[in-house]
Amino acid sequence: MELFSLPRIGIVVPPENPTAEPEFNRLLDGRLNVFTSRFPVTPDMGLREMLETYNRVLPETLGAFGRMRLDAAVVACSASHYLLAPEGDRALCEELSARAGHPVQSSTQATLAACEALGVTRLTLVSPYQPWLTETSRDFWERAGLRVDAVVRVPAARDADGGEVHDPYRVTAEAIRDRLRGRRLADGSAVLFTGTGMGTLTVLGELAEQDASRVLLSSNLASAWWARRLAGDRSEAAHPLVRRLDARAR
């Protein structure tokens, strides 16, 4: 297919997120063109205030695409949408879709759509967030009707006093491996790596080789899968993790 005739997906990401675009492009494997709008920089704000600000300015941030024709858009920031709870998240996406004239999906709603398509009812969360935000995410999924079997917290580092430092953008594949190594995951529980800023493709690929039957998801994987299905792309020339979800959905 000619490059500029490919479907167009817009994504909205936090300004410091280094992960979303590379993972989207890898997962979509050149089958969709990806364009980005970034939330404004919010100096001196605490985490909760920053996330609330993202929700407030989201219509304007989506509007930064101007008159570019998009086939769909994804809000690639799970944390801000956890604050809305499932009902508020869904309502906001519906409002934004009506305003934009094309589907707008949050990464959280894309994940819920993937869970429905894949028959997932139970989750093991792998979270890089601060404890309060991890609990907010657990509450989101449980209020959406999913059972959370366990939560695996993945700090980015430890400070001089031995305390955990939580920063999704600094979490390494080795840090994720360390937290999962030797841990027995509940049978039938899908693993969800939450957050669009934590790089997960390497570890997801390793887990896929170790356990062929377990459903593996991340915020970016679920969002890219949603966008690809919306665009009607069923090509076999897809990323292995995408093909794996396709096979499970069939």
Automatic annotation (TrEMBL):
InterPro entries tied to this protein: Iso_Racemase_Enz_sf, MaiA/AMDase
Domain of life: Bacteria
Protein name: Arylmalonate decarboxylase
Matches recorded under Gene3D superfamilies: 3.40.50.12500
Listed Pfam families: Amdase (PF17645)
